[in-house]
Design goal:
The structure holds 2 protein chains of 2 kinds. Chain A is mainly alpha-helical. Chain A has a domain of 116 residues. In chain A, 67% of the residues lie in helices and 0% in strands. In chain A, α10 packs antiparallel against α11 and α12 crosses α13. Chain A starts with 18 loop residues before the first helix and ends in a 5-residue tail after the last helix. The N terminus of chain A is likely disordered. Chain B is of the alpha+beta class. In chain B, 27% of the residues lie in helices and 39% in strands. Chain B has 2 helices and 8 strands. In chain B, the strands form 3 sheets. Chain B has a 4-stranded antiparallel sheet with strand order 2-5-1-6, with helices on one face. In chain B, strands 3-4 form a two-stranded antiparallel ribbon. Chain B has a two-stranded antiparallel ribbon with strand order 7-8. The longest helix of chain B is centred in the first third of the chain and has 25 residues. Chain B is flat, with a radius of gyration of 17 Å. The mean pLDDT of chain B is 95. Classes of the chains: A mainly alpha, B alpha+beta. Chains A and B meet through α8 of A and α2 of B.
Amino acid sequence: MAGHPAGHGLTPHDPAPDHAFVAAEHTARASYGRLLALLAASTRDLALAEDALGDAFERALRTWPVDGVPGNPEGWLMTVARNRIRDLLGSAAARTSTPLDVDVRAALVEHDAEAIPDKRLELLFACAHPAIDPAVRTPLMLQVVLGFDATRVAAAFAIDPRTMSQRLVRAKRRIRVTGIPFAIPTRADMAARLPGVLEAIYGAYSLDWLDQNERVWESIADEARWLAVLTATLLETEPEAWGLAALLTFAQSRAPARVGSPWPPLDQQDTAQWDRALIAEGEALLRRAHSFGDPLGRFQLEAAIQAVHCDRARGGTLDRDVLIRLYRGLVAIAPTVGARKALDALTAPGEP
Amino acid sequence: MRYSLLLFYPELTAEQLGPEGIAEGIRAFEDYARALDEAGVLQSAEVMQHSDATTTVHLVSGELVVQDGPFADTREQLGGTFIIDVADLDEAIAWAAKSPSATWGPVEVRPTATRYADGAWQGTPPVTV
């Protein structure tokens, strides 16, 4: 599919892509989600927006090397993509002689090229809407917010690319046909709706744990962390969003130590390999999560557990008592198999 | 967007409901319809007779088959339809959740594909999602 330029180039077998390229790809991915969110918000038609944006990126690749990069690249891409949507809607209207939805036309008014609003959060809430099958939320998010193409998403989930592509197409059609809004839920609905978004981001991160040796997994884990930080930043006052951002930041700080097969368990990893800057960032994110004074949610507790582990890098020892208390709290509110097992292991007879 | 709210619930007899139950149900549907109307979203509201009043009509190989009873004999039956015009699915879900029947059985929320009005079909044919 031509629609995902942000996903181009970085392949799993590429041993050492240079830093500038990775940075460029990241920037492209950041604008991809921003532009797509804005293009799709007016029509709720993600497939149409993807086609239009794909065309705009292709045209940019053709014309920018000749004419030079425009002063406002995002504004340029937005204008080209919007015109393309107008063409596509216009020709569809001509074909079926159905009168074009007035609202759609009205929504396609000229945008202010200098100030492109950030609608990615609205897009995330659409992808993780309760009316969307939970199993397709993470793949959908990877594709439309981060710009991964369907083939890479399929590879990440170890699913046949054609099957994944069909699921994604269906989910996008469902958003349009059922009228799922691109909107941030009201205060009253936030508690019910936010977990879906956080779970979907967490789902993208946990793909990383399937196989650390493939570069593509690391890349998705890194993007998931970035998305968690973005979500927390855009929502500002949601402790669990900050908790997830902290959790993924701590977990990612130890990525350099997750080598070998099987990789060494957490308490046996060489702490010298952990990323100190990410640990400090995780701590700052967790402090932010706690600053609201709310009772600790699942992601904050998991982040706090990670913080205790990461603290071993400083003191050299693991504070088991604190860890047990945190795991007891976690099992009380989110009794997952993993949390129970961890608590059992910590409290088993014979443990120091 | 227009949505049909399809109310499904187990049908109770007048004896099972009792006079107070019936009065309460009537009051709840009064309030619900009025709230929809005052919000300016209500297009139509119909509560149907019980499913045992259904006559099912089918042309089988050109022959007319008329049957006593509903097509699908399930515990929860379609009991009423509310057609509303709202901005998006979230608003439709919010109204569906307020239906007095939502505690007795499921409410299906389905968007309209096309409808006949002013002498023509307004919309596009339904698509498979």
